[in-house]
Amino acid sequence: MTFLALDVSYQRGDFHLEFLMQTDATALALFGPSGAGKTTLAHVLAGLLTPQRGSVMLNGIPLFDHQARINVPPQRRRIGYVFQDARLFPHLTIKNNLLYGRMWQPKGPSPIAFEDVVSLLDLAPLLDRYPPSLSGGERQRVAIGRALMSEPRLLLLDEPLSALDEARKDEIIAYLKRLRLAALVPMITITHRREEVLLLADEVVFVDRGRCTGAQSTASFAAG
Amino acid sequence: MTSLGPEDYQAIWLSVKIASVASLASLPFAIAMAFCLARFRFRGHMLLNVLVHLPLVLPPVVTGYVLLLLFGRQGPLGQMLEACCGIVLSFRWTGAALAAAIMAFPLMVRTIRVSFEQGDGRLEQAAASLGAPPWAIFFTITLPLAMSGIVSGLLIGFAKALGEFGATMTFVSNIPGQSRTIATSIYGYTQIPDGEAPALALAGISIAISVVALALSEMLMRRTQRHRKATP
């Protein structure tokens, strides 16, 4: 069964997304210049934008199918979206930000434990603080942890380094490496930076002007 | 204070009661209306907006007169309320509360709406991606983030209701114990000889109530914001 199959058409104003791809990679990068439609694609995947036509299948289950009139709402897609701008809830402590997604999951033991997420991302010293008092890098770490805690079937990282200065980038890169090694959940990284592809993906899909312009393994991407 | 009689104290208590009931009871409706107007575009949006604002631009006497026509004992809604639930509004404090609530409503909606418009829906998107259903997003994200606007909306509603005069006078008149509020009492005192002292005392008291209400809402606002900005 294909892990992820996309065949979508989305248009708004002058921008036209016409995207066809299939992958079995559980660490994928969507690579392309800014303005290529990567974030639009991520929004379509997460259900935050509704395409005009086509289908989105995850593990053989349709999340969107225009012809069958299926459109699973974002809250039931279980796609953990780590936004470029973190989007932490300013009125909740870091601990409650992390636990927010857990509230809507069925009760019972979870495959992803709170303590594991906290130690993976070194969040223990931040738990009682509020988002406005955090640095950019800390916010990004909390955003990753918060998405993990919602027990996603897929983690979407949208330009995880773009909002950070150089020093903070190195800090987050170390955590992203850890995240990938932990392999808690399949992940897709959206990026326009080559080094992030090499770091975070087995396979890379090229995006340009709203279209999929090819795919290759990260190994051959690195060689080329 | 010696210039005030028991009727005046009754009027003060009644004013506070009417203004509290009017602003608190209309708050949920004002929040719902503000949310609809701020976050949704639908057919009739303009019309609804105009209707909500009507009491703000109409002469209060007209609003009071329309209330009298609708909710008076002979009015269609007034008869219905009396027949089904035994509620009579005309010349009662409940009618004064209704008049005050309707006059305060547009101001409450306007104030609360601004805080709903400041949110751009991005945090709501994040909440949805974390699995929260729409009703839960409203109560856990949208509403708490709009809290300072809601508190100021409530305060403005209370202040407006406290000072309401024209619609109240027209709809429920100026009956001691039912509809004689601070505002209508002051008006009454200015119409009789030797009324200056009690009028002045009542004016002072209405200033005091407003100051206390303002201070209270300021404290509430600080409390909701203080811990958020807490730096380590």
Describe the overall structure.
The complex is a heterodimer of chains A (224) and B (232). Chain A has 224 residues and is of the alpha/beta class. Chain A has 7 helices and 11 strands. Chain A has a domain of 153 residues: P-loop containing nucleotide triphosphate hydrolases (Rossmann fold, 3-Layer(aba) Sandwich), CATH 3.40.50.300. In chain A, the strands form 2 sheets. Chain A has a 6-stranded mixed β-sheet with strand order 7-8-9-3-10-11, with helices on both faces. Chain A has a 5-stranded antiparallel β-sheet with strand order 2-1-4-5-6, covered by helices on one side. By secondary structure, chain B is mainly alpha-helical. Chain B has one domain: Orthogonal Bundle (MetI-like fold), CATH 1.10.3720.10. Chain B is built from 11 helices and no strands. In chain B, α2 packs across α5. The chains are: A alpha/beta (224), B mainly alpha (232). The interface between A and B is medium-sized, with 30 and 23 residues.
Task: List the keywords.
heterodimer, A: 224 residues, alpha/beta, Rossmann fold, 6-stranded mixed β-sheet, 5-stranded antiparallel β-sheet, 11 strands, B: 232 residues, mainly alpha, MetI-like fold
Spatial gap, N to C terminus of chain B? 50 Å
Q: What is the number of independent domains of chain B?
A: 1
Oligomeric status of the shown chains? heterodimer
Helix content class of chain A:
25-40%
Which CATH class of the domain at 4-85 and 153-223 in chain A is shown?
A: Alpha Beta
**Over the alpha carbons, how many angstroms does the gyration radius of chain A reach?**
17 Å
- Using the coordinates above, name the CATH class of chain B: Mainly Alpha
General form of chain B: globular
What CATH architecture of the domain at 4-85 and 153-223 in chain A would you give?
3-Layer(aba) Sandwich
Mean pLDDT of chain A equals: 91
Helix-strand pattern of chain B: HHHHHHHHHHH
Computed CA radius of gyration of chain B, to the nearest angstrom: 20 Å
